[in-house]
Records
---
Amino acid sequence: IIKKYNLPSLEKAFHEVHNPPSHEAKNEASERIALEEYFILISAFSCLIGMGGAPQASIRMGARDNEGAEKILGNCFATLFIIAVILTISLCLAAEPLLWLFGASENTIGYAADYMSIYALGTIFVQITLGMNAFITAQGFSKFSMLTIIVGAVCNIILDPILIFGLCGMPKMGIKGAAIATVTGQIVAGLEAFLWNLWKNSD
């Protein structure tokens, strides 16, 4: 599967960086790829725990072992939290080296670093949103799982122009405003997923 789907997309991405139609396009492509790789790195850990733990919890629930399912949920949440703390510290300390590694250029590294220095602080909410959503879906509530993502995305869309361009009395923050908007959306989505699981499994 990796060979069939992932490698061609990576090849295309690097082709865009090294063979763009213009210098501006090269800068834009390099920044986009650097950030995309950063996002993949963060979300991969949440998918590892969520998609691995949720089926196990479903099996326990199918066997009427609700206590066992709750233990799996609790262990997965704790693991997500620990991973999030480690990732946040690591990404804050090594943001620029990682961005260079992922394809940032001299013209884009400043913007990318500013964005990621703020985005990294929202790592825990990315972990909770993606990881806990897997458990929501596994319990048969895929619509609510989708809703958490939609609400977070809508918050991001609304806040983006306000914080980037300084609308509604807010200061103009540019790329940092975009990062704050993204993290705010992640916080909203993460709290939704966490509180739903807490409420649904309170019994």
---
Amino acid sequence: RTAFPANVSKVSRHSLAQCPQTGKTYVADAERGLFVRDGLMSLILDEAPCSAVALQPDSDRIAYLTRKGELQIRENQESPSITLAEGNANALAWGTDATLFVAQQDGSIAAWDTTNQVKRCSVSVKKGIRKLDYCQKASLLAIAEHRGKVKLFDANLRLEAEFQANTGLLQDCSFSPDGKRLAVAFDDVGVIWDIENLVEIN
């Protein structure tokens, strides 16, 4: 659904994340739960239904959301899961220095220090957050809302810019590797935005 390579991608009712170090694919399945596929082998990691999964960059730490909205982290596929937060979370993205950005259904965004398991900072935005994506090179967090508005925050959750990417039902967004463009996918169209000038690229 997105034009640029992303750490997390959604396919139907699944959310996928592939570890570049091991080549293993971690899957959050809306019905089966969290599991890992290695070639043709599958290992169930969590029986509870899951809605999203993300791998920490340069690590095999897995963050995932259960269907109930609980945020859990697993150090590796053999370790037990740690519940970092409970509530109605619906989107997540890894930042730098073990920071994990978590969006709640009430419209709040929190930056968690996952090493010390404490909330570093938070901000409230409009309800209906659909997707988060973080670009390490640009140090920007994209927050994509249900009806097509995108807000850009820095790593400390200070608002940098916002724009209306489209008026359709937003499905996904992803930064380009250099952080200069953002691909945004809707039900019937995909658009690419120049982040530096905040203009749509035709």
---
Amino acid sequence: GVAELAAGLPGTKVSKLWMNGNRRITDDGLQSIAEMLPKTEIDEFWCIVGGYGDEGVRSIAAALPESSLETLWLWSSAVGDAGVSALASSLPKCKIFEIGMGGNKVTDAGITKIAEYLHGQADDDVSKLVELYIRWNSPCDKGLEVLGLALCDAQLEKLNLENAAITDVGLAALMENVEKSTVKKICVNGNWEDATEGGGGEG
């Protein structure tokens, strides 16, 4: 199982760990991974289509400052605003530059926590979040307004907000600050009023 895999990783040269397509990976599984992360050389971790939620993500977030992780994809599970808030709290102290949180249960509250980190990003922060993929979640216009205000202080280059619940109001608020930001690529395909279904692909 996951615990046995995690126990065998310290001391190896493994730097990429992909654990995709397994709903049996629960919060306990992510906790096992989190406990070994500081003891490994892993800089990229993907766990797409899992059975975990906020508790598992809190474990990963707590391990980030002592880990080598730079890329983190926790896609298509049951992660909500509490999990995203935990990640946002750890970002100033870790090496993460790319986060994929698509297909979860993130709302405006979670987006606001990420925006608060971006807005307060200091020059001496270890983390410089460059790529943020949060497609197939449920941020609405209010979340985009807050995110837009944070872009000027951030170093984001890629932002994916596909299939959310965004209207022209939110897009206008976001784009108002893009010119003053470092953003090079934005994806807002497939937005409508009620984003309740999941989907595949990047983000």
---
Amino acid sequence: QLPQLRNNGVKTGRRPDFTYDEFVQLVKFMRKWVKASRAGHTLVVRKLLFNYVMILVSTGIRAGTEAMNLKWKHVRYFTAEGQQFLSFNVSGKTKHRELTVGYRAIRYLKRIHQDNPAIAHLSFDELIDEGSEEYLFRLDGRDKTTDFGRVFKGALEASNLLIDKRTDTKRSLYSLRHVYATMTLTNTNISTYLLAKHMGTC
């Protein structure tokens, strides 16, 4: 049975999610899917979407407003117990919060940085120090929530992963939050309270 986080909203049935093996299947498919893209807008969107997916599942931030509002100025370094970490300052569905970014997400942040011609001339550290107004997940400053949802649905259909057979419902980008929660509770010693606070559900 998967761990459940407290939610003070309207009571609903279990939401669609991915098992670990299903998520691995999705990642393998998306890597090939990106490489198979023709040069141009399709390739740009798929590359950014893949990085977006990997950051969502590595941080637990909400797809949509919470992620789309992130600018590089909301990403900062901090030091704790002699070690340097990155954090996101996010705001969206719930009140503002700061969350630590794991090493897995940093790899994809660097890819987004390198793919953006407006900031590619800066080193990654310079970008963080500068506090750029550039958005992380937008193209030409435009919110890609709807486009990402549509393109991600196409990827799920093509990989035969659209329907969660346990719930008989369609998966979406939001399903990645449950993957993050499950992997974090399974692989770390974090309490459900601290995880819920990190994810903005308490």
